[in-house]
Amino acid sequence: MARGALIQLVGKIASSILGLIAFAMMARYLGVEGFGMYTTVTAFLQFFGILMECGLTLVTIQMISKSNADENKILSNIMTFRAITAFLFLAAAPIVVLFFPYPQIVKVGVLVAAASFFFVSLNQIFVSYFQKALRLIVVTIAENVARMILIVGVMLAVYFDMGLLNILGWLVVSNLINLAISWFWGAKWLKLRPAFDWIIWKEIW
């Protein structure tokens, strides 16, 4: 546990530094108005992210930590549950934002960045499993690789002057890569598939 905590601490410090580098480049390139739009997009989606989460990460850890828990069955159902609920919540965001007096680029940005939040929400299920299994090195590697991809993407966007939407696109790519790494390593121990077991879904609710 101490080793896992140390790995997570070092990983968080590294990912925070990489994140600050990425945000600094964004702020410098986009300027006050452009970075304000970026913040508006992410803050708006965060409301839906909070509603979508509803403690499911902790619920996942609790359910798979029970004695004789069938991790594959439980996580398959939770992943299916999360995919459906995340899609429904995040699909509503680009519609709801149309009723707000934001510039058009912010409304399009919400549509683009919603995919990023979807990938993050799915990845949280793997994070819960890796925390329970004390395999936090996977979480650390995935998160830091994703941050490095984001930095490269922002650098390209700045160099070629591609604008806010392209940066949001790279945010989507980086979070997709994070999920892909987690899924790849998770597949070594888990066999996830779409599942609907009413008893498990009722327990999740």
How is this structure best described in words?
The chain is mostly helical and 205 residues long. The chain is built from seven helices and no strands. It starts with a helix and ends with a helix. The protein is globular, with a radius of gyration of 18 Å. The mean pLDDT is 93.
Q: Tell me the Rg in angstroms.
A: 18 Å
Q: Helix/strand-derived class?
A: mainly alpha
How would you describe the shape? Answer: globular
* Structure summary, number of beta strands: 0
Low-confidence stretches: none
Keywords summarizing the entry:
single chain, 205 residues, mainly alpha, 0% strand
Short description:
This protein is mostly helical and 205 residues long.
Write the layout of secondary structure elements.
Layout: H1 2-53, H2 56-64, H3 71-96, H4 104-132, H5 136-159, H6 164-186, H7 198-204
